[in-house]
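Below is how a single chain appears once it has passed through the pipeline. First comes the sequence as given, then the structure the pipeline wrote out for it. We keep one example in the README because the format questions we get most often are answered faster by looking than by reading.
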Amino acid sequence: MNSLAGESVVVVGSGFGGLSTACYLADAGADVTVIEKNEQLGGRASVLERDGFRFDMGPSWYLMPDVFERFFGHFDREPTEYYGLEHLDPHYRIFFKDGDQVDVTRDLERTKQVFESYETGAGEALERYLDKSEENYEVGMEHFVYEDRASFREFVDIDVARQARGLSLLGSMQDHVENYFDHPKLQQIMQYTLVFLGGSPKNTPALYNLMSHVDFNLGVWYPEGGMGGVVDGIVEMGEELGAEFLVDEPVTEIKGRYGGFLVETERDKHLADIVVSDADYAHTEQELLPPEKRQYSADYWDSRTYAPSAFLMYMGVEGDVPELEHHTLVLPTDWEQHFDQIFEEPAWPENPAYYLCVPSKTDDTVAPDGYSNLFVLVPVAPGLDDDEETRDWYRELILDDIAAFTDTDLRDRMVVEETFSVSEFTDRYNSMQGTALGMAHTLRQTAMFRPPHRSEAVEGLYFTGSYTTPGIGVPMCLISGDITADAVLEDYGA
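Resulting structure:
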């Protein structure tokens, strides 16, 4: 008999954490219903379709393929049963705003030569750095990511301490990278992945140098159909496992009842023995639960450090954009001011670092013949006022910047244009302060310092997704679903 046979579960929200949890619980025999607020599944991994163009609205980097393989492998399946994968080369291109251009490719020896051209000895330093990054990745994933160490006691356990020996657990990424590289551009190349964690070089723990192993060694991939194709694949598998998925049903309240829950939506009422929320954690506690059922006060949520929001422009463009790669980064030579305008003195960055994605370079189904599909993402501080006048000004600034530093003028070629920013993250995803990602990975918001998977106020209520461990990013949210499902099985499994 399956461990959760006879138990009914409602999963609120269909981001990767919710989809992952739903698959694990359905596989364990539970009667699982996923309820999604918006018109499509995937949470922030939504898809925008306009006039023959298809845009990934949220995540667009397929990293850590081993995590996806492990996830599908739990159900005796492989990712490639649901979507194809292409290893990108180059992984990405970088334009520095002083005119330098760097391609990071699959060929590590070539990349070492690039590093050496900036700083004598940097090629060998890169090799040492990646050796450390790989060690951190292998030990960190096995003992600190896949295992939920929810208390300080679990971290100081003697066996854990033995595994952690030599890991870069303390200090900032800035300090750690400076131990290997002096040239500021090389430091930037090693730190750009912090954007995926919602942090800055100064406030992200050095442990996350493991992301360089992800980048340089495991590679950057493109899934057939984009990240929306990955969502479709997981939903297809979830349905095969017996889960049910509902869209266009915003949840309005989670009520306790004798022996279970009543989950109310704008359209219906759902009874459940167990509830898992993949909605924004703060929204769930502050808006969906009564005051006596909340773990944290409004002051707690106001005091957290949130990952950036974003200013996004989705553009369908006539012709090719040969200067850009599938993934392109545009970086000022000194990006400290941009990070300060996110975390220290929130403001719209006037000399921004940003990211351009052109999936039509790899996938000819995302744009009509003769056109390019691209979007630009500028990390900005959460909570900024993004009124129409501000957005119009910032649109012009970004288009000028792209033209100046990538030699790609887009203005007279756009046939489709949509913007998405702080307001839309708040309205569409009930996101705290309009953050695009959740809680940042600062030292005080990592591991056991993140909100728990089990509610400490309501028996039978659980949380999953980027606010919980292991944290931000699609692979981390898949793992979060595994951890949440394990907690449910531990508490309710036969």
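The mean pLDDT is 92.

See the next section for the split statistics.
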